């Protein structure tokens, strides 16, 4: 874990809200001159605190109206089975998140689809074809209530 001081935290809060800030604007917001601000940002990138910069797209605006949360239990938790599952789903763009879990399921996935038919196709033609799956449970979301990308750094 990287130790963050108050200036680092201010930089992270500002960049999480707007990753397109210019260094000049960021420096002004956090109370630094541009050169030290840029050095701090580059350091946060180098040590892996800042991983990448992205644009957040509204799924509904591009026709991805279905969000599903899928819990997957494997028959066995042997390394080969875990690796097969993980490398297979990593190739599928509709899988936005996958977590290795503790509890009654081995994995939790967040998946998007254009329609229920497309979601059914994902289940039938992709997910159920992975060897070693014992159980799949799906829940469909009506709408997000809270959807954050900003981590609490203060």
Tell me what you see in this structure.
With 154 residues, the protein is an alpha+beta fold. The chain has two domains: 6-46, Winged helix-like DNA-binding domain superfamily/Winged helix DNA-binding domain (Arc Repressor Mutant, subunit A, Orthogonal Bundle), CATH 1.10.10.10; 59-140, 2-Layer Sandwich (Alpha-Beta Plaits), CATH 3.30.70.920. It is built from five helices and four strands, in the order H-H-H-E-H-E-E-H-E. The chain has helices at 6-17, 23-30, 34-46, 79-89, 116-125; strands at residues 66-74, 95-100, 107-113, 133-140. It has a four-stranded antiparallel beta sheet. Helix 1 packs across helix 2 (23-30). The longest helix has 13 residues, at 34-46. The radius of gyration is 20 Å and the shape is elongated. It starts with 5 loop residues before the first helix and ends in a 14-residue tail after the last strand. The mean pLDDT is 96.
